[in-house]
Write a structure and sequence with these properties.
By secondary structure, this protein is an alpha+beta fold. It has 2 domains: about 50 residues; about 140 residues, VirB8 protein (Nuclear Transport Factor 2, Chain: A). Helix content is about 45%, strand content about 30%. The chain has 5 helices and 6 strands. The protein has a 4-stranded antiparallel β-sheet, with helices on one face. Strand 1 and strand 2 form a beta hairpin.
Length: about 200
Amino acid sequence: MFQHFSNIETAFQHIKRFSLLFVLCCALVCCYAVYESYRAAERAQDRIYILSNGKALEALTAGRRDNIPVEARDHVKTFHELFFNLDPDDKLITASVTRALYLADQSAKAQYDNLREKGYYSNLVSGNISQQVQVDSVRLDLESYPYGFTCYATQTLVRATSRSERVLVTKGTLRNVSRSDNNPHGFLVQGWETIQHTDRVKEVP
């Protein structure tokens, strides 16, 4: 009789251990399933679908840090194009420079005011001169913050009878700001200055 009770107790202990092991395995499987579902959701969020000509094209998002070199160079390029690509029209000049000033601090505004006081923009209008800039390269220093840059560009003045070219080199730093419609890259040019602005040796006919 006591042997019978002992066997029941042993069987109960085995069932208890098996039940605990089964519950533990179920918990592990549930945790793994939840973890994988979160990972799948994150991977899905990294996918962007772009509609082009009625077709859905898949693209992948990237973090801000991954895009800093590309966005910083494009910010510097866009700023210089807005500031220097000018046609002989007061309203167009004001509109273009105003857009450029959203991308830079007071140092750019100071250069704009200085050029206006010297009559630079009025000379463009009166002489029917178009000004264009071609950014050749932008060198970045991403080792320290704010990020330093040097911009190498070619400035062209287009007149009715001739074209002249100037070498334009500027430098400054970039700091992070909030993105907006006026500043989509989220950078601000600061301490901007021109370090070289000289005519090329010959005029381009």
